[in-house]
Specification:
Number of strands: 0
Shape: globular
Strand content: under 5%
Structural class: mainly alpha
Distance between the termini: 19 Å
Oligomer: single chain
Length: about 90
Amino acid sequence: MENLTFDHALLLYYVLAVNVVAFAAYGIDKWKAKRGMWRIPESTLLLLAVVGGSLGALLGMRIWHHKTKHAKFRYGLPLIILAQLGLIYYLHP
């Protein structure tokens, strides 16, 4: 990380943090689902992916076996990842 600029380091920390939060949110929502408790809205789970936590969301979906039968998650999360990779490719100098 010696060669990272401050902006790049900040972006890296943000992406790591939002992925950890997304992963945890999927686990918490699964835990609450098993107990019939109040749930995290699907829109929040998807928003976490859109704002940079897509890999954490996908990993959480796979690890916790949560939302795997919902088409908007099964197909939406990989599409979000592809869109983010395309954006990175487009914006990278």
